[in-house]
Structures are given as structure tokens and as C-alpha cells.
Amino acid sequence: MGRILGTVDCVAQSADLVLAATSGDGYLRVWSKEEGALVLEMKTPNNMPANTVAVQDNLAAVGTLAGGLFLIDLGTSSVLHALVGHTDHVNSVILDGNQIISGSEDQTIRVWDRISGREILTIDAQVEVKALAAHKKLLVVASQDNIVRVFDRATRHRRPRRVLRQATGKVTAVAIDAQRMASGSYDRKVRVYAVPSFRLVRVLKADGIVTCVALEGDRIVSASFPTITVWDARNGDTLHVLQGHSSIVWTVSLLGPDVVSGSGNSAGSADISVRVWDAETGALTRVLNGTEAVRPIEEVLGAATGAAASAAAEKVLKAALANGDPAELGRCKLMIVGQCAAGKTSTVRSLLGMAPVEEHISTVGVELKRTDAESWEEIKDLDSGFERQVYRVAALRMAVQEQAASKTPQSTPMRICRKASNLVFGRRRSSAARPFVAEVQVELVPEAEVAQRFEYAEIEDMAGKTQSDQKIYFTIWDFAGQDVFYALHHIFLTREGGVFMVVFDMQELLSKQERAVEYLSFWLNSVKLRAPTAPIILVGTHYDEASVDLNEVEEILIGQLSVDENENIVPNSRASLNFFPIDNMSSEPDRASELRVAVEASASSLESGSRKISLRWLKVLDDLLMLDCDHVPFKAAQELATKYHVGEQTDELLSFFHELGMLVHLRATDVLYDNVVLNPQWLLNKLSRVIADDIHVDQIRYDHELQNAGLEKDFEWLRKCGIATLSLLRFLWNDEEVDFLVDFMRGAMLLSDWAFPEESLTSGRQSEPLYLVSSLLKNSTSAELDAEIADMDIGLTCVLDFSKFFLPDGVFARLLSLCVQYSGNFGAISRAPQLAGNQAIVHFNFSDFALKQTKNKIWIRIERKSRKPASTLKTLVGMFRGARNAIFRDLPWELLLQSPKDASALCAYDEVARARTSGADSVLSTSKRITSVADFDPFFHDGSLEEDEKGSETVEQATAADFDPFRQDDSLKEDETDTETVEQASVADFDPHFQDGLLQEDENDTGTVEQVSLQVLPAGLEYHVYLSHRQRNARETCNLIADKLESRGLKVWYDRESRGDLAKEVMRRGIRASKCYLLFLSKSVFMGAVLMELEIALQEKKPVLLVHENDPDRAGFVTFTSYIESAPKDAKHLLRESESIPFQRRLTEHFYEQLIARINAS
Ligand SMILES: Nc1nc2c(ncn2[C@@H]2O[C@H](COP(=O)(O)OP(=O)(O)OP(=O)(O)O)[C@@H](O)[C@H]2O)c(=O)[nH]1
Ligand SMILES: [Mg+2]
Question: Does the keyword Kinase apply (predicted)?
């Protein structure tokens, strides 16, 4: 414990305690009032200067710079809630019954629920809140514009109910009770107003500028350098002048006869102290500075014991259950990836303190293990964590609730004193939980069962343990390194809630550098694609090998992979490396101790870990796991959720648990959506019986039962050609859930129907369904196919180019799956596709084409004699887009066209299309050669390759069929009518529109909006709207908005694929050609390209429409005030004056109607 440093910014007091918040050293200190012993000294939880403090019984609320706000249990010095929402300094805090009220320089007043920690109200004060006082529904705000504003907290009025303008200097302090309100200001006056009329009744002249005021009963106390004055509020008489502080008094508090004050300055003046005075006599009773004798705080606070405590525990437990109190799960998915035999499983064993295994027992598919951060021992049970969290939230409720009835509640002084600090500007990411709504009570556990199931003593034991210091539970996903399994990875590498461990063998990196770097680069790219912000821990195994030089390894990682620039890589600070070396062969059980620390720290940094979810969600999971099924229909989950009154959140809760690796719920197709896999290991085991590497299949190959069933040939066929008979699948899956598994694989594009006869395989069982598992072809080659492709007479060629990032494994295989499915449905059954690992010849009804994968490109070549080459290309591009959107959502790619006249010229499709629109004759190829636009005409014979249902004609007659990719172009439609297959064709599973996340984002929106009437564009304009957004966190949302507007017939100028590097002139052209400018507001929107676009829109005098991210759980969410703050000066008025539309992901009809109406009216 030590002397206070810097300024005492705020003091508070209760009957027993004196508290001080200090900005100089960032501490909260607490003394016993009775004998002046120091009973608590703690750093602010965020290590920021403490700005403000309030106390009520055993609870303190502390506000800090940069938006920190914490509810602290003084008895245990633990943080009960970190109240996240303010984005700037919190200057005032009030504990008001079951609510906490805070005021900040972010121009908001926020009201929080003390029990749940949720924000229940935000008032836009429209001015920096320097001081705040509250009485019942009145909130009084002091600000630097010399004005006192009175808000009404009950009616949520945005505008102040009263504006008091009498002060002639900055108002620094306010205090209020049932009778009076007092303000203090730089004009050296204390003004006294009557409550509730807010009539000015008295002006008191202070000695200097007033820094703080407090009032209670008939006394007012004001602080102003160098004195503190006690006034008689009834007549304005000075009762006492309290002299003793020799530096500025910043803060003062009044409770009964006690005045507490605090002084100091950052220059380190002699008087940095907290003083206690007697308001009746004016005598100084105590001077406190942090060097006092120490006494345990429990002796001062006292606590309920025995039966009273147990009864209290029962009460809070029942209340927590009935209300579904929010819990922080403390769960994390740890995903271990890397090259085959790199030492992944060995590293997991090291983490779990298990003995090393020298033999390489290669992992098949994915192996799941569970553990927790404290023990690092394997936990065998599948556990929802429900009971643990019930104890935790009940203990929290107990700590937060009013003191036991035996203690008389103390009156809370409704005054809070603050001063202005010109301190560093800080910002905090808002991940505010949605507003807490008092919900219907639900019986989560039947009354009769509560006492049987829970030990009340557990709650008492937990008291003081905060949610945030609970241990983290991990689900470890140890992925197999063999590349056939990569096809699964894209499904199971999740985006949020996870930490990645990329494991490599250091010896291998040093001896076979090129190959090892290639693998590492592949893994780093894969993680970046799937989870762009997830922490990545690089682990180098084989540290025991004599020749490993860590510095050399580090140099390769930096030189070849720029790991030092990858901000997601977790540094090994102790060793000053970017990776963690490990000897997995050591018999030391703690050989992974540093790695464990890194994993724990990375996991606790994840936002999902601190996200609060209702106990109801957890009960749904708990009940689901009790069913003891490997998978259940979505409906079952929904029914349970409905039972606990969270039916409408079923989707959201499943997605949350999926991201944490606790269950699997995919959504790309109906079948996937309709099933929730509760035992992921079961699913992974089943999948990897089919998708397996050669080194894993011997067990199956020599299985007697395979031979007894006469399926050896079937198995060979699967391994050789990727074609599986239904009988074989039945065998591999032990005849369990075969339909579901086939549907699941089909939905995940891991399997497609093989409609082509395989007589030699199925003789005698011709009607047996066959399937293609295209990822098994990965390493297959065929000289015959090579020759045939080389002989093809090619008409048109286009290229799916991924060289801007990389081409992940599985893209080509999935495209093959889709082509095979389509060819089977619409093609000639007699002409089976010819397939190999990276090339294929496929026949559609009107065309034959070759597919070929080279390093980062997929080439699509249509044979010259094909009847509708452009239509086929369009279909294929549509298919790819569907696969990309469903499985590789953020994968950057570009469509290139090969000039039919010059095979060496590849031009970006967009460039060619733009050149055609603008009438340009030539276009630059990717190698910067001038190429004739006319050469590319054959690609446009059937309309644009990118066009889908944008045209307004299609919209008018929109039917479900229009969302079928294979009917996207009219010419194809006409052709299809020639065939009989069309009517029976069921291709919905492969419908890109279905898979592009629409289902996920907005399953209620059918996209048919005949009722919206569009205005014809005025002459000279080409677009209804120019859509401007920040790529980083709004791209997906804006893709959706653009899609939806376009499907409603609007012409939208939208930079869909860009990296935000458009030339200014291109922007200007786009904005000029647009009727209005639509800005999508998301976090940090006013940067880079958006700033330029906004500036141009203002220069061009385009009407500006605003839509903002509305979901606090999205990364792009910030409060509206921060948009106003961060907007450029000349655009601030737009944000203040025009009403921004909150973006809706569900029930979107009204949103789009509203938006289109505004576009029409602009
Ligand atoms: N000497 C030494 N051997 C190691 C170390 N880590 C792993 N090994 C050995 O390397 C081989 C492969 O280790 P695994 O942990 O099974 O590798 P994996 O990455 O899980 O392999 P797959 O599951 O097939 O992808 C085993 O024989 C291990 O004993 C290490 O730090 N030092
Ligand atoms: Mg393994």
C-alpha cells in the first residue's frame, strides 16, 4: 500500500467507508470511516486513471478514462461487471438502487442493470457530460458550454426537459435531491434551483472557481480553491469555511455530518490528500493519504452467516434461474492445424500433460478433446456447463443484490462530483449486450428439483469469484494433416470463438524449407480466410533435435512468411520469438506450460468469451445434450428454446455454440439447416470413414465384413475414382443415419449424385444409387485425360483467378461436384464426366468443356462446337459463385476472359464489361497489353456473365424458379424447354442464391417485391444509388444490401469486390451517375475511400442517405454518437439532422421498402 500519487479526482462515502478514485496512479482506495484504517487499495481493472467513484453498501462503481466502467465488490475486491459501452472518459457514476447511471465525454448517459450488467438505456446528451446528478427520474448534466441540462430518464426523451442557462462560465458540478438542485461553475458561483420547477432561487458567491458541489438536507457544500464552504441552503448563509487543503480541492461529498474532500495535482504538490470534516462544527477530523494502517475490509463490512446465508443463496439461485440471468461461458475452441506428422497430436498431449508417444499414430479426420485452463487434464464428459454457470450467476446476483435484510439500507447521496480532465483521448470497442428487457419468468429447473440438483453452499463459496476470472473451458479440435481432409476443414474451421494453433516441425522447416514454408503459408492463409481476426499461435515441434537453431527458425518465419507483420500471431514475448518451440518427447508433464499460458491469454482476449448469454440458452443446450443423440432436427432445438421463451433466438444460440465448437450447425442448405449435430466427434468419424487418406484405409480394406459383404470392389472404386455405391456408404457408416449423412455431405458439397452408369461395378444391382466424393480425386492423375484435353478444340476460355490471395483446397473439388450433379441432371447420361485431381471434362446438354486447376487459377474451356458457350460459362460462373458464397465466403477472386483471338491475352471481365458500356475500343490485359474489346464479343452473346436476376423484367415475375442459377439467362431457359429433364429437375441444393448466405442472413425474405414501384431514372443518370461502405466490417452486409436492391430492380453502383482502392475519378464518375449517395455506417467508417466518396458526394450535391449497423454483436457496431464524433466537420450536420435507417437482417421487407422509398424521394 502506498501514498496517493497525483490527483484525488473523486471521493465518495457510505456510513462506514470513505472512498477515493485517483487519476494520477489509477487506484481506488477505501478507508474505514471510524478509525481511518486503509481497508482496500486496488488498481482500476483496465489500468486506467480512475475518474469517478460511487458507493452503496459493499459495492463500488468506478469510472475511468477511455470508457472504463466497473462494478466492484468491495468485500472481495472483485469486478462483478465490466460495463462496456462508453467510448470516452467516464466522468460521473451513480449507484441508484438496482441501477447504475454513468455520464461520459462520449456525450451519453447510460443506465445499467446492476444485476445483469446490461445496458438498459442510453440517453444522447448531445454534449460531453462533465458531471451528472440523479434524483428519481431526473438526470442533471453539467457541461462546458455553461449550460445545465435536465433529462427525464423515464420518458427516454432525447431532448432535455430543461435547459438552464444562468451560468456564465463552464459548469463543473451538479447535485440534486428532492428539494433542490445546485450547480457550480467557473464563474465562481453556486446556483441553487428549486426542484422540480428548476426555478433559480439563490446564487452563492464562492472564493474561486467552483470545482464540485454536494448537497443533503439543508446543507450545500462547495469546493473551490483553496477552500471548502458549507452553506445553509435555506438562506444562503455561510455556515463554515473548511480550511486545510493547500492545493486544488477537486471533489467533495456530504453524508450526514461528514464532509469528505480530495485534493492534489499532477505536479505532485505537497497536499495530495483526502480529508474528512465535521459539517456541524467545521472541524477537520481526519487526513488520509494512503499510508495509513491496514485493516481487513470484512471487519468493516460484516457479512451474513449460517442459515441466513443459506436462505439468501437459495433465494438468489431461484431468482437467477427464473430470470435466466446472463452468464459468460468462458469457452473457447482451440483448433490445431498443420502439415501431416508435424506433431499436432503430440502437442495436444503435451498441453494435456500426457506421456509422449513416439509412434506416429496419424489422426483420422478430426479428434476432439476437452479440457479446462486450470487443470489442463482431459475431461471426458460432454458438458453444457449449465450447472457451473448457474452457481456463478447466482453468486454474482448474491454479491450484487441489496444487503441481507439484517442490514439497514443506507441512503445513497444523490450527488456526484466531477471535474473536467483534459486527458488522453481513448476509445473502447463497444460489444454492448443488447438492452436488457425484464423477461417473463421461466421455470428452467422445476421447483422440486432445485434443491436436489444444487448445493447452496457452492454459491456462498463462489461469492467473490467474478465471471471474468473463471477458468476457460476448451474444446480442442486436432485436425488431421493429410490433404484429403482439407475438404472438411473449410466446414469446421470456425470464424469466432476460436484460437488457432499452427504446428510445424522445426527440423523439417530447416531441412526442407521450401515445402515446409509452403505448408505454413497455406495454413496461415486458410486461417486468415476463415477467421480473419482469430489469434494464431505458431508452435515449432522437435525442439529436442540437436540441430534446431531457434534464431534460424525465426529468421525463416519472418523472411518467408512475414509473421512479424501478422498482427494475429501471438508473440512469444519471453523468448522474443514469434513462435513457441516445444519438445513433445520430454517426459516433463509441464513441458507445454508456456504454451498453455499463451493459449489461455489468447482465449481470454476473445470477444466471444466475454459475451453474455442467457442461462436459458445454456439450458437449451443442456437439455439437448441430455437427449443423448448424435444429431437432432432443428425443430427439436427450437421447441426447447420456445419452452424457455427464447424460441426466436434458436438460430442465434445454435450459431453461438457452433462457433465455440460445442455442436455443429451449418446453414448453407435446407438439409444442413434442419439438423443440429450434438456430437461433433460422431459426425467427424463418419465423414472420415469416407474421406480418408491412403495411410488410414488399410483397416477398412482388410476388414472381413467388407469382404463378407462383397464390397471390396466398391471400396477400391471409391479409392480409385471417388465413386461410392450406396451399399458401401451403408457399410462404412455402420448403417447408421445414412440418409442424413448423404444429405449432409451433399449439402456441404462433399458429395454429389453420380447419375452415370457404372456397369462393371454395379452389375446385378443397376438401380443402386452412386455418388461422387470429389475430394478423393485430389491426387489422381490421368494421362488419357491429359491427352484428350490437349486435343480439344477450344472456343471460349475464362479463368477464375485467385492469385490475389490463394486458391484453397476444396474449391476445385466442389466445383467438380456441382458440375457432375448438373451434368447428371441435365446432361447426357451416356457421357460421364472424366475426372482427375486437377482437371476434368464435363458434358452439359449443349456443351462440352474442360476444367483445369493450375496453381492459383481454375480454367474453364468450352469446346468450340458447343451450342451456347456463353450460357454455359455463365452457369459455371454462377455455380462457382454459389460454392464460394456458401463455403469460402471471403475468398477474393477475379473473373478473367481469354481473348478468343490471342490466347496470351487475359483481361478482367469487369474491365471488358466497363469498356463495352463506355464504348471504349480497347482494354488492358492483365499483362498490360492493349487488347481489342470487340474480340471478347462472343462472351456477351447471351448477356453479361455476371448478370443474374437483376433485370427489372425478371423481378416482376419473380418466382422461386428465378432463383435457380441454371435458369439465370433467358437463352438457357429457352433451351431447357426443349428437354424433358427440366420439369423433374431438382437442383435447389445447388442453388447459389440459396447458398449465398441469404438463408443465414434473412430467411424470411423471399426477394419478391412486386409492390415496390421504382422511379424511372432521370436522363443522364445511370444508377439509383451509389453505395459507399467500409470494406473491413461492412462488406458482407453491403453485398447483401446491393443484392437485395438489385433484385428489386434498382441500379446500384457498388464496388463489390474492391479492396477499397478505387481511383478518385472512378468514384466521381460513379457518384455523378447516381441519383443519390447511400452511406452504410459501421465502425471506423470515416476513413480512406469512404471519406473521399463522401467528400465527392457533398461536392456533387447528391442527396445523402444513411443506414447504420444495428446489431451490437457485429464487429462493425458502434454507438451512433461515435459516428457524429468521427465524421468530418462538414458532414457532421448530416448525421445530426438526417435520420439514419437501422439495418435489418431479419423481416427485412419493411427495411427495403423504407430504403427504396427514400431513394425514390431523393
Ligand atoms: N523428437 C520429436 N518427435 C516429435 C515431436 N513432436 C512430435 N514428434 C513425433 O512426430 C510424429 C508425428 O507426431 P503426431 O503428433 O502424431 O503428428 P500429427 O501432426 O498429429 O500428424 P497427423 O495427425 O498425421 O497429421 C510422431 O512420431 C511423434 O512422436 C517432438 O517435439 N520431438
Ligand atoms: Mg495427429
Answer: yes
pLDDT over 80 at 434, yes or no: no
Start-end ranges of CATH 3.30.310.200 in the chain?
A: 780-939
How far, in Å, is the centroid of ligand 2 from the Cα of 342?
Answer: 8
Confidence band, pLDDT 50/70/90 cuts, at residue 423: very low
Residue 545 class from Cβ within 10 Å (0-12 exposed, 13-18 middle, 19+ buried)? Answer: middle
Which architecture characterizes domain 8-299 according to CATH? 7 Propeller (2.130)
- Helix, strand, or coil here: 635? helix
CATH 3.40.50.300, the chain: domain bounds: 328-384+469-612
C-beta of 336 in contact with ligand 1 (< 6 A) = no
The predicted pLDDT at position 822 comes to 87
Does residue 987 carry a pLDDT above 70? no
Nearest ligand to the CA atom of 344:
1
Find out whether the beta carbon of 988 lies less than 6 Å from any atom of ligand 1: no
- 199 CA to middle of ligand 1, Å? 80
Residue listed under C-alpha cell 499483362: 927
424, pLDDT greater than 70: no
Q: Say whether pLDDT at 586 is over 60.
A: yes
Distance set, CA 255 to CA 13, 58, 216, 634, 646 (Å): 7, 17, 7, 58, 45
More confident residue, 889 or 1060: 889
Which class does domain 780-939 fall in?
alpha beta
**SS3 state at 832:** coil
Atom index in ligand 1 nearest the CA of residue 541 equals 31
CATH architecture designation of domain 328-384+469-612: 3-Layer(aba) Sandwich (3.40)
Reference 859, options 847, 876, 879; nearest CA is 876
Looking at ligand 1, which residue's alpha carbon is closest to its atom 32? 542
Residue 866 is predicted with a pLDDT of: 85
Residue 229, pLDDT score: 96
Distance CA 114, CA 220 (A): 29
Give one word for 1069, left, alpha or beta, with left for phi > 0 and alpha for psi -120 to 50: alpha
CB distance 346 to ligand 1 below 6 Å: yes
Domain 1023-1161 classification at class level: alpha beta
Going across the sheet that includes 752-753, the strands are 723-725, 770-772, 752-753
Q: What is the spatial distance between Cα 918 and Cα 920, in angstroms, rounded to a whole number?
A: 6
DSSP string for residues in 554-614: HHHHHHHH-GGG-TTBPPBGGGTBSSEE--TT---TTTTHHHHHHHHHHHHT-HHHH-EEE
How remote is the CA of residue 484 from the centroid of ligand 2, in Å? 14
CB of 541 closer than 6 angstroms to any ligand 1 atom: yes
Cα 530 to ligand 1 centroid, rounded to whole Å: 25
What per-residue confidence (pLDDT) applies to 439?
47
Q: What is the mean pLDDT of residues 67-92?
A: 89
Give the ligand at the shortest distance from the Cα of 693.
1
| pLDDT at 791 (0 to 100) | 92
**What stretch(es) of the chain map to CATH 3.40.50.10140?**
1023-1161
Identify the residue whose cell numbers are 446500384: 1052
- Of residues 690 and 669, more confidence is placed in 690
Q: Where in the chain do CATH 2.130.10.10 domains reside?
A: 8-299
| Residue range 129-174, pLDDT digits in tens | 999 999 988 999 999 999 999 998 876 556 888 999 999 999 999 9
| End-to-end alpha carbon distance in the chain | 64
- The percent of residues above 90 in pLDDT, for the chain, comes to 49
The 10 Å Cβ neighbour count of residue 344 is 27
* Residues in the chain, total: 1162
- Cα distances from 1026 to residues 335, 866, 1031, 1081, 1101, in angstroms, run 41, 39, 15, 14, 13
Cβ(60)–Cβ(13) below 8 Å? no
**pLDDT value at residue 595:** 96
pTM: 0.64
